[in-house]
Structures are given as structure tokens and as C-alpha cells.
Amino acid sequence: MGFDFTGKRVLVAGGSRGIGRAIALGFAQAGAKVSACARGADGLAALQAEGVAHVKPTDLADAGQVAAWVAEAAATLGGVDVLVNNASGFGMGDSEEGWKKGLDVDVMATVRASHAALPHLRAAKGCIVNTTSISGLGPSVRTPAYAAVKALIINYTASQAAALAKDGIRVNAVAPGSIEFPGGTWEKRRAEDPALYNRILAGIPFGRLGEPEEVADVALFLASPLARWVTGQTIVVDGGQMLS
């Protein structure tokens, strides 16, 4: 059974490539009117050519640009039923730069987009889906800043869900494992750091890295009526990576 989002208005922050792109296209193919934003204008143009109704180049670390995107998208689509906060600054190391990227994009873009969309979500009794990571479920020596901000998103998802239930708004998150796609982090790691790539690959019981569409399907489920009694949850989508 496929998803049917006919007539729904969906905003995807960080939608130009990888998981965000798969989520935006998944909603569009299921009948939704979709707006996507990101810094990558070329990726956004390609999305629009594939059926995404509205795109806007946006620096998600910039509060004014986030608010402008949500306002323009809501006006263009006629409201907001679903907000997907997918953007990441990929701040990895334990450095000022790494922490700033994660806090500015992973955290504050999620907070700001949620605040800006809230009046529309209240009117529609809509829902929010946040993208976090399995990195947020435990400590990380290799990527401490990234793991910490993803843990924050897991906690914020639960806090949002508790606060917004009275408005009929559900909030959930997806926590992907290692996902590979053209131009993505793990494709680069395979070429530049094969030892790390192969170590991660060896820890996934199914013997491969995940695909963006496998995460998108779970995001669509969480936004659908099939998940109407699910809120405050973080769903791991990792092919068993955390089992090893």
C-alpha cells in the first residue's frame, strides 16, 4: 500500500540531496504539494524539475532566511500540514567550528523552522518530522559535536511532542544509520578513507549501507495517518547497525 498525501502541504528543510531529496520527492510522488529549501540551488532546480512545487535557496544557519522560506512556502502552498527538519551542518570534530555548524544548522534551524511553521501547523493539526542520527544515541570519539547535536534533536523532538499534543500536532524523528548516495559523506569516505568505510560496513548485519529512500519511507509513514497515535518517538533506520 502506497502513501497518499494528496492535498497536503509539506515543507522540507535541507531537501536538495540525499535523505532530504528522497523525502521531498517521496511526498511529491504521493500527491503532496512540496516546498524544499537548501543552499544548493542546482539540487533545488533538479527537484523542481521532478515535481516539487516550490523551492528556495536558503542558508539554514540564517534565522531571517529560515523565516522567509517558511513564510513564502506557506503562502505559495496555501498552508503547512507537514514540516520536515532535515538539514545538517555536519560539524564533526570537537572544535569551535564543528560545534557552531551543528548548533547553527542542526539545532537552531530545527527550532526556528518549527516556530515559524507553528501557526500553520496548528491550523492544519499537522505534524513535524525531525531527522537526527544513530550518532545521537551514544557517545562518539570520532564525531563528538555531531553526536551531541543529534542527541539534542532527539530530546527536543520529545519536548515538542509533549508541548504540542494539546494542539493536535504530532512530532517524531527518524534516526538514520550510515546512508550512502552520490556525492554524500559515505561515498567520499569509501574513496578517501576505505579503512573507516569498511569498518562501518562490517558492522551492518545486512552487509551494505542504507539508501536515502529507506529513510524517506519511514519519514512518510510518521507523517501519515497510519502513525496517527505515534508521537515523541525516534525511529532508528539503520539495517541493524546499532545491533553490532
From TrEMBL:
Q: Which InterPro entries match?
A: NAD(P)-bd_dom_sf (IPR036291), SDR_fam (IPR002347)
A single GO BP annotation from the record? fatty acid elongation
| Gene Ontology molecular function | oxidoreductase activity, acting on the CH-OH group of donors, NAD or NADP as acceptor
| Highest taxon of the lineage | Bacteria
Question: What family is this protein classified in?
Answer: Belongs to the short-chain dehydrogenases/reductases (SDR) family.
Record-given protein name? SDR family oxidoreductase
* Taxonomic lineage from the root: Bacteria, Pseudomonadati, Pseudomonadota, Alphaproteobacteria, Acetobacterales
